[in-house]
Amino acid sequence: MKKILMSPWTAIITLFLMLCIRVDDPSFVESIRLRYFDQLITSKPVTNSEQIKIVNIDDETIRQKGQFPFPRDEYAKLIDSLYARNAGLVVFNVMMSEPDRFGKDNVLASVMNTQKSVVLPQVATTEKLKTIPPFRPGVSVIGGDPANTGVKYESIQPNISLFNNSAAGIGVVNTLPEIDGVTRRLPMVVNSGGNLYPSISLETLRVAAGDTSFQVKVSDNGIEAVRIPKFGKIQTDELGRIWVDWSTRPVEYSASNLPKDFGGSIVIVGLTAKGLNNPVATARGSVYPHQLQAAILDTVVSGKNITRPDYANGAEILATIILCIILLFLTRYTHGYIAIIILGIASYYGSLELFSRTGSLIDITFPLFTIFICFAHGYVVKFLSELRQKLQIKKQFGTYLSPAMVEKLQHNPELLALGGESRELSIMFTDVRGFTSISEHYGKDVQGLTKIMNRYMTAMTAKILQNNGTLDKYIGDAQMAFWNAPLDDPNHAKNAVKRSEEHT
Q1: Which of 143, 271, 396, 463 ranks highest by number of CB atoms within 10 Å?
Q2: How does strand 118-125 pair with strand 155-157?
Q3: pLDDT tens, 288-313?
Q4: Pairing between strand 222-227 and 213-219?
Q5: Chain centroid offset of residue 138 CA
């Protein structure tokens, strides 16, 4: 049993326990994995978006126009100004679920009807609301029943009916943070009352394409993809979410200082003035909601496809098992740890290259941690086993061999022929001449006899060991020593004779 417990292969037990943790996937494991995905997603160099622009209602805008919320004819003027500056489509990310206190709703609605390309937000909520019916474009569901798919909410909080009837499109702006509170994926559709409602980014695409509806592909596992007929298919996870790509960043302007020409870009208007909006935690840090919507819209419009492959979990577990077993073989080597360092570097740059080329998110954190723990287990057990063996060798041979020979055996125990072997030895027997007379001389002074014999035996033993001999036993006043065992000594006869001459 002791031999089994001292085997490096007991690390297989550790491997099994670590795999059980991975299959259970507790929150701390998922959180670490998501943080690594953040590293991959934000590793790309950031460039300016050519398709999306942002206009902020910021502190300077508040200073110029006064208390917020503004009269809605101010919103109308801003939207007119954006289209006059060649905005391709305006996404006005300001919720207006109550009538304007200044009575200017008709002015804003008139501008929306005139421009025909204004997209507004609406909010999904877990509360049961009694409101007017929310805005919902046509939807075509392919492959299954949408009632039990997607992220579910009780109700949709709409804008006032005047804007519902005037806006070209209205989309849901809800985020869906991960387990650590960071928003990395956004749903393209949400479910309320068994009906699917588009996100504001999907609704913006629909309005930009001039389509009257959007499509959703559903399977037994959930949502597979969404699509605007004039655009390509957008692959999603089972909840209808897609990952946000942060490799492009829209150019931002203040509503108080607009550029001359937006170049036909989609312009998203949002609030950044202090106290008007709450930032959202993302892989890039805290951003305002309309900045997040701009990023997801740019992700979709650019056709970027960040995915967590279906095979990823199984592949990571299988790779962990195979690499663990391979590396456990290396625990027998002193510098086997170098393989762990190489594996870590190769895994990081390999996953980075895979993401750069295909957009696939592969986790290396838990596999590498598991491999390191198992390798460390095997290495520690090997170290303890070797230490135990060295101590045993020292205990067995420390009295009979020179320190140099004991150290040699400790470094290379294979030199011991544990199974026994035949070999030529040079053997020496020594004793004290006239020991009987010496003993009689000391008479009852046993301590005196012992003292002198200890001095004699110590000196004799030292000379034997100095000449690479092995002290076999003490026999009263005699000693037995031999050469050429347990270590080879090609000059065993010479060393034995040399010792004999010294004794003489």
Answers
A1: 271
A2: antiparallel
A3: 999 999 999 999 888 888 899 889 99
A4: antiparallel
A5: 40
If 0-12 CB within 10 Å is exposed, 13-18 middle and 19+ buried, where does residue 454 land? exposed
The one-character DSSP state at 430 is E
Q: Give the C-alpha distances (Å, rounded to integers) separating 25 from 19, 59, 121, 472.
A: 9, 44, 35, 61
CA 459, 462, 468, 474 torsion-angle sign: positive
| Phi, psi for 277 (deg, rounded to 5) | -150, 150
Query: Does the predicted TM-score (pTM) go above 0.70?
Result: yes
HEC string for 134-180: CCCCEEEEECCCHHHCCEEECEEECCCHHHHHHCCEEEECCCCCCCC
Residue 244 is given by DSSP the state P
Could you tell me which residues are beta bridge partners of residue 307? 360
Torsion of CA 143, 147, 151, 156, to 10 degrees: 130
Say if CB 175 and CB 125 are below 8 A apart: no
Q: 453-496, pLDDT tens digit by residue?
A: 888 888 888 888 788 788 777 888 888 888 887 777 888 888 87
Q: Cβ(485)–Cβ(472) under 8 Å?
A: no
CB burial string 194-217: b at 16+ within 10 A, e below: eebbbbbbbbbbbbbeebeebbbb
Residue 487 parent element (H or E): none
230 vs 390: CA distance, rounded Å: 75
